[in-house]
Design brief:
Largest sheet: 5 strands, mixed
Helix content: 40-55%
Structural class: alpha/beta
Number of strands: 5
Order of helices and strands: HEEHHEHEHHEHH
Distance between the termini: 22 Å
Strand content: 15-25%
Number of helices: 8
Shape: globular
Length: 163
Amino acid sequence: MDKAFMARAIELSVANVRSGSGGPFGTVIVRDGAVVAEAANRVTASNDPTAHAEVLAIRQACQKLGFFELKGCDLYTSCEPCPMCLGAIYWARIERVYFGGLAGDAAKAGLTIPPSTERSRSLTRNAKFHDSDDARRSSGSVSGLGGKPWQDSVLSSCFGKLR
């Protein structure tokens, strides 16, 4: 896992909450050490329940690479992917998935998380999943937030102690 890419996913999620555009979810897709696509959750901003960061980043990466399969790509996301996103990850053939916060962390922060996330992750066999606990707990990218109290609470619940 490259901590810089995880830090970028977390930066996207923090900026998304601070701007009021959506929840604390950011995703970066990487191939051969370079960022191919990145996105933040746009569900509330677009009134589109499928506009999750992972799905938006997958769409961007496929457009940029000109193909619907993202073989050889790694996905870094600020939170454990939901079942819908896992389906997109599966069909895109992403090689590895690294995530910061757990679905339970997001649920504790008051965000709606489907109960079947763990079961769905076990069904997605082509991608290797990595919980980057050390990245979310020690990332310097979430320092100095100073946002609204609810925003800091959501971000703190998802990413641990904020510096």
